[in-house]
Amino acid sequence: MSQTVLRLLDKAEMDKQKALESALGQIERAFGKGSIMKLGSKEAALDIEVVSTGSLGLDIALGIGGLPRGRIIEIYGPESSGKTTLALHVIAEAQRTGGTCAFVDAEHALDPGYARKLGVNIDDLLISQPDAGEQALEIADTLVRSGAIDVLVVDSVAALVPRAELEGEMGDSHMGVQARLMSQALRKLTGSISKSRCMVIFINQIRMKIGVMFGNPETTTGGNALKFYASVRLDIRRIGAIKEREQVIGNQTRVKVVKNKMAPPFKVVEFDIMYGEGVSKRGELIDLGVSAGVVEKSGSWFSHDGQRIGQGRENAKQYLKDHPETADAIERAIRGNAGLVADAMLVTSPDGGTDE
């Protein structure tokens, strides 16, 4: 009796296997080889390719060492918070590893001199300054489909003005036109972005929702589609000024990982953005070094490996500039203790982000 049941079960399993093989064969004949496969059969697909953000702390906070390729990224925040600076740092890092990058400047406000100071090779950077939102997204789609672009930045979503709005009168109402445009563009883009392994960074601005009594009144422009399609969303804010005597020489910046499909989200990292220099790597080494226990802080003095490196943060930064070998040693030690640093960045009760 039991043998009969086993034979029937084996026959049923074989029939299921044959039916599955037949279905897979039919799909491959209809849509081409590789249109369906087992997830673990392609090891390369499981490896996440990343591009560094130019900030050691943010790379650690993202959990995978940078921003993922073949995904959509959104960077948003108030005015003059460092959104374009962060995107230009990503471009510089991609170019450093031999990547080809493009910048769709819908705001018509990119400063080539500033980009060069951040390490961007402007001679190799492709730039487009489109007239309308449809043109900008069509250019982005063509570049992504080419498979030759590694990083594409769209600056910004708020400046993607639909053609209907451009051709209309100044007082005309165009409710939801931009949101529909973004929704359609992202539906078209998302498949080709994944296939081409191109990272597309959308820079976005913040608006206030009217009549919100409780909760966060902030929202981003362009509707909800980008919030869903983005694998990583970064909220960047200026939290203070860096002064040398009375002169302001930079901004203290806080970045919160609001959404992350690749690793746990809600990590928060702070770093300095110096005018004309970008993200201060030496300032990060000191702050992260203290978090990781690599740099000791006693009063206002900082020391590493039993040797004092400066009284006050700015003096310690200057010491690391003059002694690059010490900076390299601290960076290696921080990377070795990345887990400890990441735990210190975790925010248990997230607040201040926009609604998903």
TrEMBL record:
Q: Which GO terms describe its biological process?
A: DNA recombination; DNA repair; SOS response
Report what the protein is called: Protein RecA
- Binding residues for ATP, per the UniProt record? G77, P78, E79, S80, S81, G82, K83, T84
Q: CDD domains per the record? A: RecA
Q: Where in the cell is it found?
A: Cytoplasm
Per the similarity annotation, which family is this? Belongs to the RecA family.
Question: Which InterPro entries does the protein's record reference?
Answer: AAA+_ATPase, DNA_recomb/repair_RecA, DNA_recomb/repair_RecA_CS, P-loop_NTPase, RecA-like_C, RecA-like_N, RecA_ATP-bd, RecA_C_sf
Q: Which Pfam families match?
A: RecA_C, RecA_N
Q: Which GO cellular component terms are attached?
A: cytosol
Q: What is its main location?
A: cytoplasm
Give the transmembrane region(s): none
NCBIfam families (UniProt xref)? tigrfam_recA
> Keywords of this protein's UniProt record, alphabetized?
ATP-binding, Cytoplasm, DNA damage, DNA recombination, DNA repair, DNA-binding, Nucleotide-binding, SOS response
GO MF annotation: an example: damaged DNA binding
Q: What does this protein do?
A: Can catalyze the hydrolysis of ATP in the presence of single-stranded DNA, the ATP-dependent uptake of single-stranded DNA by duplex DNA, and the ATP-dependent hybridization of homologous single-stranded DNAs. It interacts with LexA causing its activation and leading to its autocatalytic cleavage.
The UniProt record lists the RecA family profile domain at: 47-206, 211-284
Q: Which residues form the signal peptide?
A: none
